[in-house]
Amino acid sequence: MKQKIVAYKTLPADVTEYLREHLDVTFVDASDTEAFAAALKDADGAIGASVKVTPAMLEGSRIKALSTISVGYDQFDVPDLTQRGIVLAHTPDVLTESTADTVFSLILASARRVVELADWVKAGHWKASIGPAQFGVDVQGKTLGIVGLGRIGGAVARRAALGFNMKVLYTNRSANEVAEREYGARRVELDELLASADFVCLQVPLSDATRHMIGAAELQKMKKSAILINASRGAIVDEKALIAALEAGTIHGAGLDVFEKEPVDPASPLLRMPNVVALPHIGSATHETRHAMARCAAENLVAALSGTLGNNIVNREVLAR
Ligand code: NAP
Q1: Structure confidence at residue 319 (pLDDT)
Q2: What is the mean pLDDT of residues 288-315?
Q3: Which residues, including other chains, have CB under 8 Å from residue 308's CB and lie 6 or more apart?
Q4: Would you give the DSSP letter of residue 255?
Q5: Is 212 a catalytic residue?
Q6: Which residue in the list 233, 260, 295, 299 is annotated as catalytic?
Q7: Which UniProt keywords are given for this protein, alphabetically ordered (predicted)?
Q8: Are 47 and 19 a contacting pair, CB within 8 Å?
Q9: Ligand 1 centre distance from Cα of residue 74 (Å)
Q10: Contact 91, 300 (CB under 8 A)
Q11: Per residue in 185-208, is it b (16+ CB within 10 Å) or e — as a string?
Q12: C-alpha closest to that of 5 among 315, 302, 306
């Protein structure tokens, strides 16, 4: 008999077909928390994204593997999963380049005021040759500070150093030797990065150690001319402090793909600021990459449930139990 799994996100048809070749698949609408929790109680595994899976939802279940269609795994209590013997798989690498493209589009759009000025043209304001009131700032040749230079940060560093002749600074707990060698990236303390960078780009995972890593004190340390780019997780930044800093002119602007609460409140002051570019969490959202992520997550789940998964495991310790 096939093992049962719950899919809590719509999947491409060919990925569903692949899963059904190996497993008994039930789709559930995860916005119905009770139905989702009930479905988990009668499953061996689950696949999905963007929904919190709490220890309470797993209590009394026989779940052996969870597969998230994302690289970030902040929707899970990883130590709890490990203690329950549940393998958690994720989808690194396949989304790295698309997400780095999103980061770079935020850098360019913020610096060159692309969204603001495109709206200005559409509103019929372009009546004469433009002047300094419409000028932006250069990206090429500037200093980029990457907070968390891992897979995505590395792809951003490559674009910056090789494509835009930028100087790259970064913070990490450990050195990224490839980025240092190939892109001239220099590892510095966070304070030095904040004080020197023209663009501060956040690419750390969300954890207890990184939550509100950028608050009022850190924003104060940035250059008045600097632009903050966040395409990691909203809660890395204290959003209230960011709003205050933008209102006070402490920093020049922000490019945001993620927010503390998503979807962002339409009444958020951030959405009224011309110097803020706001995107609806589109980091990896291309047809090609989202398909590759779904396929990767499906393969992870099938392998995890057959005991053959060798990579893409968040809590490798669980295998040693
Ligand atoms: P990764 O390869 O693990 O890179 C994360 C980097 O952050 C590593 O270099 C790591 O280096 C550093 N780091 C981790 N904890 C830290 C801490 N406490 N202090 C300082 N640095 C720390 O992950 P990735 O694949 O690049 O993805 C990064 C994050 O991007 C994901 O977790 C996800 O939240 C986000 N993301 C967002 C989107 C989107 O749609 N906007 C799409 C994909 C990913 P050390 O371990 O040496 O510290």
Answers
A1: 86
A2: 97
A3: none
A4: E
A5: no
A6: 233
A7: Oxidoreductase
A8: yes
A9: 11
A10: yes
A11: bebbeeeebbebbbbbbbbbebee
A12: 302
- The yes-or-no answer on residue 233 being catalytic is yes
Structure confidence at residue 184 (pLDDT): 98
The pLDDT score that the predictor gives to residue 25 is: 98
Task: Tell me the per-residue pLDDT of 146-193, one tens digit each, with 9 for 90 and over.
Answer: 999 999 999 999 999 999 999 999 999 999 999 999 999 999 999 999
Catalytic residue selected from 113, 159, 252, 281: 281
The verdict on the CB of residue 90 being under 6 Å from ligand 1 is: no
Q: Is 71 in the pocket of ligand 1 (CB under 6 A)?
A: yes
Verify whether ligand 1 is closer than 6 Å to residue 65 (CB atom). Answer: no
User: H or E segment at 143?
Assistant: strand 143-147
Closest to 135 in 3D by CA, of 102, 101, 156, 112: 112
Full-model pTM:
0.97
Atom of ligand 1 nearest to the CA of 175: 47
Told to judge if 20 belongs to the known catalytic residues of this protein, a careful annotator would answer no
pLDDT mean across residues, the chain: 97
* Short-list 79, 53, 56, 54, CA closest to 67: 53
227 membership: H or E segment, kind and range: strand 227-230
> Does the C-beta of 203 come closer than 6 Å to ligand 1?
yes
Query: Please, what are the domains in the chain?
Result: 4-92+287-320 (3.40.50.720), 96-278 (3.40.50.720)
User: Which pLDDT value is given to residue 320?
Assistant: 80
DSSP state of 237: B
| Residue 310: count of CB within 10 angstroms of its CB | 8
C-alpha 317 – ligand 1 centre gap (Å): 20
